[in-house]
């Protein structure tokens, strides 16, 4: 049997994609729109050395495995991959073939894979290292992927055919309306990214907004954008840990895409700290990716943990609501936007493909391949309800007064 046949037996029968291998063998569905090319025995070596998604990811990132056609379509055709389910005779066959090519152990790990950060998990030092690994790739690379809005969080699509920029504007405006922002108020945006929410609040609501991020490159880009848009009298972005913010008396706090980096053990301090920053009657909007239920581990899969979000953790929305409720907030509204995140990722994938050559030139082929793989996989995850995106609105009570209308306008 050729290498294509071995790969097909590992992935499963009745694949809707074509498989081609370096030895000329073919398997799967001939003439399919998507073709997976096994370019070297190293592809199988990676899968043997790291069973499952990590091995496949290493094979693809290193170039030993190629996907011709749409990555999302290819991933949708793959079943869950694990060597534990491979019959013993196939494992022996794989080992024999690899031994013949002298490609079994060890297998070189792609250089872009994250090595363990130093320090205690979710300490300030380690969080800074983890954030820098993902977000300090290149501002220009992110411009190619995210588009003009430079918003790296779930957008909100007012209609199915809305553009990404319209959807990101709608997301920022939805957050502003949930927080009931008004001219002259003060907003703290933690994990502010490239400053999208900060600038939206300042420009469209006349709010004095402070954003903080652990990414130096994000802060530099945001500070420049704020100056160019003439918002320096209202908006500010600092390169700092949210835990180091000294100011208080804010009317509102927004956290859009930060909680995934906090860690479940840090949630009590996180919500208590942000509650303490608010005036009585102030509101907090927490927007983050969550698990669909509490039976899954908080830590992500090995590919996401090694190549995308080191030390990231996802909790079910019930854990977040309980933590907010137990640490100073009355929860007043919650909604799941997972379908919107699938659409957002669809549009980011399109941007990356449209700007592929420039993105590779800017960040390198291996890094670009990581982004192509992870964004397509995440799109599939939101569509299949493997992950969700929740917005939770809480209020710091003024005595017993929530200062909320009988029915919310948003």
TrEMBL record:
It is an enzyme of class 2 (transferase). Pfam families: CMAS (PF02353). One of its GO terms (biological process) is methylation. InterPro entries: CFA/CMAS (IPR050723), CMAS (IPR003333), SAM-dependent_MTases_sf (IPR029063). Its EC number is 2.1.1.-. PANTHER family: CYCLOPROPANE-FATTY-ACYL-PHOSPHOLIPID SYNTHASE (PTHR43667). Belongs to the CFA/CMAS family. This is Cyclopropane-fatty-acyl-phospholipid synthase family protein. It comes from Saccharopolyspora ipomoeae.
């Amino acid at each position: 049997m050729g290498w294509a046949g071995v790969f097909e037996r590992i992935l499963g029968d009745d694949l809707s994609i074509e498989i081609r291998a370096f030895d000329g063998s073919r398997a799967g569905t001939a003439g399919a729109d998507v073709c997976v090319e096994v370019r070297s025995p190293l592809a199988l070596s990676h899968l043997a050395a790291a069973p499952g998604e990590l091995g496949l990811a290493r094979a693809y990132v290193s170039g030993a495995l190629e996907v011709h056609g749409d990555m999302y379509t290819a991933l949708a055709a793959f079943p869950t991959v694990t060597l534990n389910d491979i019959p013993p005779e196939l494992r022996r066959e794989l080992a024999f073939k690899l031994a013949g090519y002298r490609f079994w152990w060890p297998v070189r790990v792609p250089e872009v894979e994250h090595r363990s950060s130093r320090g205690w998990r979710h300490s300030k030092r380690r969080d800074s290292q983890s954030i820098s690994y993902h977000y300090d790739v290149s501002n220009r690379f992110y411009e190619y992927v995210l588009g003009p809005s430079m918003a790296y969080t779930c957008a909100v699509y007012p209609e199915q055919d809305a553009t990404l920029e319209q959807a990101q504007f709608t997301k920022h405006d939805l957050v502003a309306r949930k927080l009931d922002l008004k001219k002259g108020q003060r907003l703290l945006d933690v994990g502010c990214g490239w400053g999208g929410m900060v600038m939206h609040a300042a420009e469209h609501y006349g709010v004095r907004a402070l954003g903080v991020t652990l990414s130096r490159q994000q802060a530099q880009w945001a500070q420049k954008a704020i100056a160019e848009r003439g918002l320096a009298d209202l908006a500010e972005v600092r390169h700092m840990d949210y835990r180091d913010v000294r100011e208080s008396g804010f009317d509102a706090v927004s956290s859009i895409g930060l909680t995934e980096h906090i860690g479940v053990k840090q949630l009590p301090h996180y919500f208590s700290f942000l509650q303490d920053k608010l005036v009585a009657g102030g509101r907090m909007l927490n927007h983050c990716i969550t698990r669909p239920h509490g039976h899954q581990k908080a830590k992500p899969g090995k590919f996401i943990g090694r190549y995308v979000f080191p030390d990231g953790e996802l909790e079910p929305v019930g854990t977040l609501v309980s933590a907010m409720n137990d640490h100073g907030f009355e929860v007043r509204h919650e909604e799941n936007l997972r379908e919107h995140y699938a659409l957002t990722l669809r549009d980011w994938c399109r941007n990356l493909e449209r700007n592929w050559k420039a993105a590779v030139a800017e960040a390198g082929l291996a890094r670009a391949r990581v982004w192509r793989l992870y964004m397509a996989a995440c799109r599939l995850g939101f569509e299949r309800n493997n992950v969700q995106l929740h917005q939770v609105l809480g209020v710091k009570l003024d005595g017993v007064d929530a200062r909320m209308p009988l029915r919310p306008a948003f």
